[in-house]
Amino acid sequence: MDRCAGPLRHDLQAHPLDRPEAWRRADAWYTRTTGGRPVLLSVESFDHGFIARPAIPPPEAPDHVLIIDRDTAALTLWPAYATDTLATQYGRYRRGEL
Predict the structure, then answer these.
(1) Using one digit for the tens of pLDDT, what is the confidence trace for 38-56?
(2) Domain segments of the chain: what residues?
């Protein structure tokens, strides 16, 4: 799996992230990634965070989605799997199993 942390990480959150803040962070990341072009996003919630999916994947990150961690606000890039698969894999990632 292609996961990026480094420049995608934000400072640790004092409280759990909510959906509007997850959208703001995903929007900012995709806007930077596309050189300032806006990207229409959908944001889905799951136990450990939020999945931001572009309506039309930009060429800079084709076939990928962004996961925003609910507790840490860390951003990681993942393959564009189905929501259930992403939720399962991300849970394993958080537990250090991947």
Answers:
(1) 889 999 999 999 999 998 8
(2) 6-94
Structure tokens that stand for 63 in this block: 């076939």
Which residue, 37, 78, 69, is CA-closest to 50?
69
Find where tokens 């072009």 sit: 37
Token pair listed for 22: 């997850």
Strand pairing class (41-46; 75-79)? unpaired
DSSP designation for 9: -
- For the whole model, what pTM was predicted? 0.81
Backbone angles phi, psi at 10, to 5 degrees: -110, 170
Q: How far apart are CA 84 and CA 14, in angstroms?
A: 27
